[in-house]
Specification:
56% of the residues lie in helices and 16% in strands. With 832 residues, it is of the alpha+beta class. The longest helix is centred in the N-terminal third of the chain and has 39 residues.
Amino acid sequence: MNRFIYFLKRYALTSELIWLGLALWISIASLSSVTFLMDRLDQTFEKNAHELIGADLLIRGDQVLNPVFENTAKQRGLRTATTVVFPTMARFENQSKLVSLKAVTENYPLRGKLTLKFASKKLASNEIWIDEQLAKQLDLSVGNRIELGNSEFKITDIILKEMDRGAAFMNFSPRVMIRAEDLTQTALLGLGSRANYRLLLAGQESSDFRSVQKQVDQFQEWAKEHISQQQLRGVKIEGVENGQPIARKTILQANRMMSLAALFTAMIAAVGIALSTHRYAQKNIVSVAVWRCFGASRRQVLVSHLKPLLTMGMVATLLGIGTGYLTHELLLHWVGSLVAQDIMPASFLPVIWAFLVAFTLLLGFSGPSLLELTMISPITALRQLEHKKSKWFFLSIAASLASYAVLLMVISQNIYLSLAVLGSFIAGAMVVIIFSWVISKWIGKFIAGLKDAPLGLKFIGQRMFGGTQFTVVQITSLSIAMLALLLLTVIRTDVLSTWQSSISPEAPNRFILNITPEQKTDLVQQLEGAGIGQGWDLYPMVRGRLVKVNQNTVTSESFSDENAKRLIDREFNLSYTQNLPIKNSIIAGKWFGNSGDPHEISMEAGIMKSLGLKLGDQISFDVVGVNYDVTITSVRKLDWNSMRVNFFAIMPPQLLADSPQTWIIAYRQLPNTRVDDKIVEQFPNVSVINVEQTIGQVNQLLGQLFYAVQALFIFALVAGLIVLFISVLGVQTKRLREAAILKTYGADQSYLNRVWFYEFISVGILAGLLSGNIAGISAWFLVKHFLETDMVYPFWLIGLAIVLGVVCSFVSGLYLKYKISNVSTVKILQSF
């Protein structure tokens, strides 16, 4: 027991190791809270997302699917169901309405269930279920009969929620659902009908999740091979990744934010551990030298100092895991409504990752200093001579950075983001070292040469010029510590606020589709009569299929990317206008405007990347049998969060104005008004899409995730403050010794105050200038390339950095003044 207490007092409870433990604790708490949260959400989506598509796997086609798919699935023990979806007209008395008809087999859906108003158990022959939107628009109720084609169906229930509906173009219209066996008698499907055929596949309900997933994966591999061998056009395989796109996209963005916060915290902790261990090693140089004089080997020295380090690491890691687990439970309380299902319990994987990160941090960033401590010769240490760094010191640093980078990549699941964060810190440190060395030499030489320099300033100039290494250490340690804090500040201030307000409260919440050219003027007049005189979008829509690129015919087989294949297989919504649409910005080329050349096209940047297109390419669209050859003359960036009408491809009016077309309007409808209902009454052929609920859901998710990300950034800020304090303390030992020597030679307190004032001002300003500029550049790069958000360069950050640098320097001055005033000069010199 006495040995344990001695061990604690001698090693584990030293101030350097306590600060090291605090930095590690905060870092592991941040990282483990992210990994616990994302692990549980990923497990939940993996297990429950099949309910969002009504199956474990889908095979989709634009024509009747070959029976071989269903037969093979049944032979492999899978359950099957089929659906056919297409737009058609529904009639009730003297009213007609465009609807999205879905014909389903009896066992649909295979996963999850429909939410029905009257909880009907089964859809019988000649019965129909309709959604609430249609019931309200045509004033329908259970018992009414509506006509579809040549048949009449009795309404027996109202669809409240259809999980696998999706967001396809034909699904914008109100849903009606009948039995697949009743479809033939309607005579609605014929040559040229645009229908979507789906085969739903799922494992047996009694089987466990992992065995079912394996069974489905094996069938999927067979189906992919069969589609490829038979060259089946228009037949695609869809999985659970297509389900719940809004929540998934929002969580993906939040995951990037949380990963960024966790990565910053880890890098801050790495700096704190390196600074603390360096200070610890410097403090123990003499004791190690004496021990070496008495015959201790390097191995004995290393092991004796590793023990307290590992003990502190174990305690800090356990505390960090516990704090992280409690934090992630709190975060789940905020974001739990992102998924409708019960969230899966946590696995043990985040705990394993926490230990791996902790000891990679600990050994990687403390190892070089401890290794160097064992290699200093006793004579060099006792005479306090400058020790030349060995090659093993630099090799250990390189190995530490490499292993830590790999670990961060695995945890964040984003290689480029991890490398960018690590690269920002390394590049920032190198720039600070080089610039601080050059600037210190130049300023020191200039000040030292001044004949009438104020008392104390000349001393600082001589030391900056002659003792440049110490000045560089001061500026570098303070700059790197501030760099992390400044990065967090700018991302917290600019990016999170932009992200939270990404959907404007004035964004359109109604879309009207299928407007004929003849109805356009009357419909606009009705909107203006309802007080909606501005702020709405009105654009033509022309359906066209991309058929050629640079005179070469393209098909889905021309591309390996699945997204590109899907784009080629479907028709594009083309449009035309002379004016650049709102929330569109040209990032390459020139908007055609009134150029006079009709054979131009402006393309969206994302789709160009997916299809491998570039500025100047010649492409051809087939619009109902007529080919339109155009040249890409501009590339646009769209703000998808604006909820406005956006198009991948826009051409001049001269080219498309005479093509078969419909029009689309997007506008904002005030609460408790019936503008959309009146429009449907006057124009029964149009479809009104109400996205108000979707906007509310997205805003709610953004708000919840905003606070979740905020909580993680608090961890990083706390870690940054700890490291900032460590960096301030790290250079005080030499300053204290210097002050003691000056007092021995007769310097009074006023002289020391002047010396410190000039030093702190110069170090604070230089550190602020360097860290502020590097933080601004790094934040702009990370935001632009990884968070996909626009950001104005934060010039204000430089001023904040200078103020922060000066304040931190003067805080260390208070510590120095306290020490030199309350401890005798003899005791200070004896402590070295």
